[in-house]
Each structure stands twice: as C-alpha cells, then as structure tokens.
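Hi V.,

Quick status before I head out on leave. The structure for the redesign project is tokenized and pasted below; the design run finished overnight.
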C-alpha cells in the first residue's frame, strides 16, 4: 500500500521546481535547491526545576514533531548559570523525508497564522549558506499542544537546512513553497518570474 505523499512535497515537485528552473535558469534539475532537513532545538538550561522542565520539553517536542527528541548536554561549566559540564540542558529533533514535509505543512499553514501580531517571517534570518533559522517563543501555536494541561511554555529554534548556495536562492525556494516573508521595509514579498 502506497503512503500519501505530503502536499508540500508534491507542490515542490510539480510547482516549485519548474518555477525555480525558469526563474534562475538552471540547466539541470539537480541544481535546483531543496530542503535537506529541519532541526528543532530547545534549551531549558535556565529553569529552576531543570529535570521537570526537560521532561516536559521532550514530551512537547515529541508531540509537535511526531519523533522522539534527543537530550543535549552542556559543553562546559558556567558557574553564573549554575551549569555543569555534561548536565542535560535541552533537547533536539532532526526531521528528514516525509516527516519533514508534514511538519512544514503544519508549521506554515497551521502554526504561523496562530502567532500573535504575525506580519510575516523576516528574510534577515538566513545565513550565507542558504539555511534559515527562526525562533518560536510560544509552542502553543501548534494545534497538537493541549493548552489546558500545560504547566510551562517552551520556546525553541527551527532551522531549515537547504542545498541553496546563496541567500537569494534560499529565499526563492522557501518563498515559492509558501513561506510568508516580509521584505526589508516591512512589506510582504511578491512572487515574480
């Protein structure tokens, strides 16, 4: 039995690839940038009851992504933060394949519209290699989260790793996939050929 292909993956193959080939003049289909993986990283190092906070963060991240997070440890001791080397302080999840595209669908179509006073995603959050990182302050924007049984609010970073070689290629890729970007002057970006 064949599984259902995520809508984002189908849109990438049928709409985004031809659009990017036409816009940027790629000679080969393998030159077209694509999303390789998405990493969600959460740190609860500053919480007073770090063990309880970490267990909640792992549970919530697993609920949001559908994949069990890996706990991360402190790389060095910092006495001002009461942090010791090797202490568990956060968790992370790396999504690839169909699960990555399913998360993207929920992130762009369900979670981002629920952000309070949302105007669009900034384009300054791209690095020079074409990867995009955005911080999520409130994880309750995801529909999977049960707000009534929530003890604390967790925040995390979402990093989208692409094969784009420049910032412009990465913006074109994610914008064509439906990411609501705002330009430098606060105006929404418009799709152009």
């Amino acid at each position: 039995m064949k599984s259902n292909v995520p809508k984002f993956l189908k849109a990438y193959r049928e709409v985004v690839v031809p659009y990017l080939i036409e816009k940027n003049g790629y000679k080969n289909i393998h030159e077209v940038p694509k999303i390789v993986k998405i990493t969600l990283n959460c740190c609860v190092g500053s919480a007073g009851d770090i063990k309880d906070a970490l267990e909640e963060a792992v549970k919530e991240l697993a609920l949001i992504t559908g994949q069990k997070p890996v706990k991360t440890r402190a790389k060095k001791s910092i006495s001002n933060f009461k942090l010791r080397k090797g202490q568990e302080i956060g968790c992370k999840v790396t999504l690839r394949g169909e699960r990555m595209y399913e998360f993207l669908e929920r992130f762009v179509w369900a979670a981002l519209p629920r952000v309070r006073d949302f105007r669009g995603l900034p384009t300054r959050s791209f690095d020079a290699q074409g990867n995009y990182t955005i911080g999520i302050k409130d994880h309750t924007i995801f529909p999977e989260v049960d707000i009534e049984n929530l003890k604390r609010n967790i925040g995390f970073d979402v990093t989208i790793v692409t094969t784009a070689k420049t910032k412009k290629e990465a913006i074109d890729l994610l914008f064509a996939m439906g990411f609501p970007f705002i330009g430098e002057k606060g105006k929404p970006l418009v799709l152009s050929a």
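Above is the designed sequence. The CA atoms of residues 112 and 118 lie 8 Å apart.

G. will cover questions while I'm gone.

Best,
W.
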